[in-house]
Amino acid sequence: MIDIVIPTYNNADQLVCCLKSLTMNIEYPYTIHVINNGDSVDNQGVGFDEYIYGQFSEGLVNVHNMGENKGWEGALNYAYKELVESPYMMALNDDVIFIPWHRTFVRQMAEYFEFEDVGAIGPISNVVMGSQNFVNHGMPIVHKTSLLIGFCCLYKMDALRKISVHETPWDESLPGGDDFDISIRLEKAGYNLLVDRSAYLHHIGFQTGQRVKGSEWNSTRMRIATDNALIEKHGVKAWFHCTQSFVENYNPITPSGDEEGDWIRSQVKEEWKGLDLGVGANKTVEHAVGVDRVAKDVIGLSGGRRGVPSVAEVHADATDLPFDDESQDFLVARHLLEHIVNLAQVLTEWRRVLKPEGVLIIACPNQEKTDTMILDAEHVHAFTPESLTPLLMAYGFDPINVFDVPSTISFCVMSKKSPSIEKMIVETNELQEQEA
User: Fold this and answer.
1) What is the average pLDDT across 364-391?
2) Does one domain contain both 352 and 219?
3) How far apart are CA 236 and CA 49, in angstroms?
4) Strand (E) or helix (H) holding 264
5) Under DSSP, is residue 61 helix (H, G, I), strand (E, B) or coil?
6) Same domain, yes or no, for 11 and 128?
7) Contact, 294 vs 281, CB < 8 A?
8) pLDDT surpasses 50 at 198
9) How far is CA 36 from the centre of its chain?
10) CA–CA separation, 95 vs 306, rounded Å?
């Protein structure tokens, strides 16, 4: 669940356009909070609540009237303290439009919160500065940045709590630049800021600021005042680092701090011959042969491969492996099985290439811990240890160890190829011959 918070100021028609595009085009479990900093009635005498609830059901959209203009920061602080109940909060302008063919917009950004070091993530747009501008080509599809613009930013609530001062994260004393300020503080607190360049949001831009402050909005005087305030608060070095919007590739699965990978490596003997399937950009077992449908050095476009080059030595699909029967001591399939439609085909293929009593190690997100289908738009199955183990047994594998990865939502199952299925096939064939 995500709480989407939209501050607004006398901009009802544009707000309705934003809300319609959001509710019609985005699939994700969310609650929408509209924070009304403007008038409670419009110039025709129609109440703001009445106007909004006349087009959206209460519960889907919730209107909160502030009674006066508390500003962007004040509205977000109010929502943070009084309204947000989910683990994630999206701050959103009222002058944005969600495009119709991008239903996974929120989902694909939210999936990166699986990693503890991610504090906030934002999309690209047409009216936005820094690395989030959609004309900046050639960047990794997902990358770290030193600045996330606040027009649409998805925050981890634990990260906001960590940087809060006087119980609120947004500094209402600044003349502007709240998104610069929060970006600096999140980085200082050890969090990464991510941009997902496959998530696009259309932004009209400069609507409320110009309505409230007129020609002063985004003027040279305002920018200088904002820069001076940020420098006084954080120092020149932090201010410069933030404003330059530095970009760095983000690769969340690394050998260090990788409990899941450490456990897998501890189960594999050095003398064993094996395959690391769906290896993407990170090989879990160094002496294994990496296999992936994305060829070596080609930049991936989805999942853990997104924006980073493949390290696979063999270019092949996991359902059709170019290896001899009973040629491998072990197979590692890390966060792969949930992406494969035909489980019967792939488990039969993996069994084919394993030696008698060869080892299969599978890692999957655990449906008991979270709704794993919304973590990635490419997930086509959900598993728990209780559902995966009988599936493996049905295709000739004997589960011998289950590991619940402590600091993640994942689990691992280690199985051995069972000889019983071959015996059953032989007996079935003999019986059929006798009957014939």
Assistant:
1) 90
2) no
3) 45
4) helix 259-267
5) strand
6) yes
7) no
8) yes
9) 29
10) 29
